[in-house]
Design brief:
313 residues, FAD/NAD(P)-binding domain, seven-stranded mixed sheet, binds flavin-adenine dinucleotide
Length: 313
């Protein structure tokens, strides 16, 4: 029987482990479906990405025992490596939690491989397990040329990046260094970019490494001789080697339902301690944040959750 099982090894899960250890909880288990912690950072941050402590104007003051600093993708992963290596707890990777069920005064956690029991459970699985997809169909024959991160990109390609947030801007500026890149956003103006990314986008446009297609929406994709033909709502079309969508992620509602978490639409119903309507079952990090979260917000959620668990033991 664990004092606490933490599902998801991203910033919220890692901070939950560290806070739980500091608070004196003895039996702690972290379950992560990837082969290592922080899958969102590994898969969706481009190499060398600047990681901002103050992100999207969200709270940037850490409240618990886990500090955070401006850095890069690599320094952030190194920092989380060290935090995990220093703590004494159990962690199992490559294990996907399938459901959580309350049974009397404890929880049964079922994974793809086995099962565990715990007095408290923190669900911190983020939103990027399911990146948002466009609502038009992507033809299966060009699926390999339509990506949601930078993993498969080469050099010298003609690429369209779709989205108007910081991820889209960073992907486009990075790819623009060695590809022919167009950044396509359906609105006339960027409204969600931080100052640095906004400046980088316009600088890249000025120096010719990025084309901007603002106020333009896409109606569908089709296959043009094995390439991606993008058909725009204004009737125009253009052929690209690759399309990259950076349009965020969505709440894993099916998984939360399997955990018996009551929802209000896409949002889990939680109180100020991030406790769901089931006592002892908590939700933290991106899935607890209506507008999309940040690393510091995830760390702070962990602090609030563990503080509450320890004070109400
Ligand atoms: C491209 C991009 C750039 C960003 N840049 C910044 C930035 O500069 N600064 C900043 O503060 N924030 C940034 N963010 C946001 C930040 O990454 C998130 O707010 C933060 O990662 C949320 O942490 P989390 O722990 O809630 O979830 P995540 O980091 O998403 O971690 C969830 C973990 O749970 C695991 N998991 C999922 N399902 C299961 C399951 N069923 N069983 C077991 N494990 C599971 C996943 O594999 C993953 O490792 C950025 C996000 C993106 C996508």
């Amino acid at each position: 029987m664990y004092d606490i099982v933490i599902i998801g090894g991203g910033p919220c899960g890692i901070a939950s482990v560290i806070e739980a250890k500091h608070a004196g909880l003895a039996k702690i288990l972290l379950l992560e479906k990837g082969e290592n912690h922080s899958q969102t950072i590994r898969k969706f941050y481009k190499d060398g990405k600047r990681v901002d402590k103050e992100y999207k104007g969200l709270d940037s003051t850490t409240k618990g025992s886990v500090e955070f600093f401006d850095g890069t993708k690599e320094s952030t992963l190194n920092y989380f490596d060290k935090l995990l290596d220093e703590g004494e707890f159990e962690a199992i990777f490559n294990v996907e939690v399938e459901s959580v069920k309350k049974n009397g005064d404890y929880f049964e956690i079922t994974t793809s491989k086995s099962g565990f029991k715990a007095k408290n459970v923190v669900v911190a699985i983020g939103r990027m397990g399911k990146p948002n997809k466009p609502d038009y169909k992507i033809p299966p024959s060009i699926m390999n040329l339509v990506n949601f991160n930078l993993n498969n990109c080469g050099n010298g390609e003609k690429i369209i990046v779709v989205g108007g947030g910081n991820s889209a801007a960073e992907y486009a500026c990075e790819l623009g260094k060695c590809n022919d890149v167009t950044l396509c956003y359906r609105k006339e103006k960027f409204t969600r970019l931080n100052d640095i990314n906004e400046a980088a986008v316009y600088e890249s446009e000025k120096n010719g490494s990025l084309k901007l297609l603002l106020g333009t929406d896409i109606s569908e994709l089709s296959n043009a001789d094995g390439k991606v033909c993008v058909n725009f709502t204004d009737g125009k079309s253009e052929v690209y080697d690759r399309a990259i969508y950076a349009i965020g992620g969505s709440t894993p509602v099916d998984f939360l339902a399997k955990c018996g978490i009551e929802m209000n639409g896409e949002d889990p119903i939680i109180d100020e301690h991030f406790q769901t309507t089931t006592k002892g079952l908590f939700v933290g990090g991106d899935i607890a944040s209506k507008k999309g979260g940040s690393i510091v917000v995830a760390l702070n959620n962990a602090h609030t959750i563990i503080d509450y668990i320890v004070k109400n033991k």
